Amino acid sequence: MTPAIGLTGRIGSGKSSAAACFAELGVPVLDLDEVGRGLLSDAAIADQLCAAFGDEVVVQGAVQRQMLAAHAFADRASLTRLEGILHPSIWQQAMTWLGQQAAHYAIIEASALRHHSSSLEGIIEVVVDRALRRQRVLVRGRQSDADFVRIDRLQSPPPAAYSLNNNGAPAELQQQVAQLHLQLLSR
Asked: Would you say 140 and 177 are in contact if contact means Cβ atoms under 8 Å apart?
């Protein structure tokens, strides 16, 4: 199986931008948030989410992502409940995907890796000043300032062996990723 390197960071840090830089270098990348969104169309998962968070999170069989996020990020217990429902299936799909890769290493991108960090060869954290992360989130327009504060408060990336500073221009992030890529290839 291809060794997996986790890529994580807090909301607004630019995990996806860093993942895109790795992909441009030919590194296989799997976005676990995307895998999780795909699982929301599974009827059994929707039933579990409805039972855990209430009828309003599933309308006519469709998970209401905004409503689910409001419930899940209300507190640590709710987030843990969501992770307990989604993470086993997400991680199973990730392991299947890794088994299909033929590369020196692959990137697993996710905001929450703490439960599976022991399955990874290393973790890269994308770090950014909080004010800049907040600005990026608000510019995207998908979350309010209150959402940012609530999500940021509950995120706790695992200890990272590598870090990428994403406070600067995109070219600076690309350069850091290229350097780290060479370092990871030489391991």
From this structure: no
